[in-house]
Amino acid sequence: MITISKFYYQPSEHELEKASNSYLMSLIAIMGGLPLPIINLIATFIFYLGNMKGTYFVRWHCIQALLSQLFLLPFNSLGFWWTISIIFTPETITSNYIAYLITIFIFNLTEFIGTIYTAIVTRKGQHIEWWVIGGLTNLICKDK
């Protein structure tokens, strides 16, 4: 799921901190806007906008963090709105609903653990590429 490698140049301490913070941004947003799945994506996007003109290393990790949030958004949104419909309409809790909640819990827990791990290892100067998302990040983020 995660590939660890050395970046083609040694990022400075300042770059390592910003790249690591791009992952931490989504974790901080979870605490502030837990029930609304879009909050994590917005917080990560705002952090990306602030670092869009930064170094390649920082931009690359900001984009990977943003794509990980973008990947989870449809799953979390469906679970959120399904829960809202159960609360405010006559719809009842079904086994499909419970199975879906368990599935998105596993997705989110995996992403949460991966994000913490990536933030820590990135801060130490190692380059982390997530499976699929890292490849997409390579396609989107170009070195100037």
Low-confidence stretches: none
**Care to count the β-strands?**
2
What is the distance, rounded to the nearest whole angstrom, between the alpha carbons of the first and last residues?
28 Å
Shape, principal axes of CA atoms: elongated
Structural class by secondary-structure content: mainly alpha
Could you give the order of the helices and strands?
A: EHHHHEH
Strand sequence of the main sheet, in spatial order?
1-2
Mean pLDDT: 89
Question: With helices defined by DSSP (H or I, 4 residues minimum), what is the helix count?
Answer: 5
Helix content: over 70%
Strand content: 5-15%
Number of domains: 1
Largest sheet: 2 strands, antiparallel
Compute the CA-based radius of gyration: 17 Å
Please tell me about this protein's structure.
The chain is mainly alpha-helical and 144 residues long. It is 72% helix and 6% strand. Helix 1 (13-32) runs antiparallel to helix 2 (38-50). The two termini are 28 Å apart. 26% of the residues are buried.
In short:
By secondary structure, the chain is mostly helical. The protein has one domain. It has 5 helices and 2 strands.
Write the layout of secondary structure elements.
Layout: E1 2-5, H1 13-32, H2 38-50, H3 56-88, H4 95-123, E2 127-130, H5 133-140
Antiparallel strand pairs: 1-2
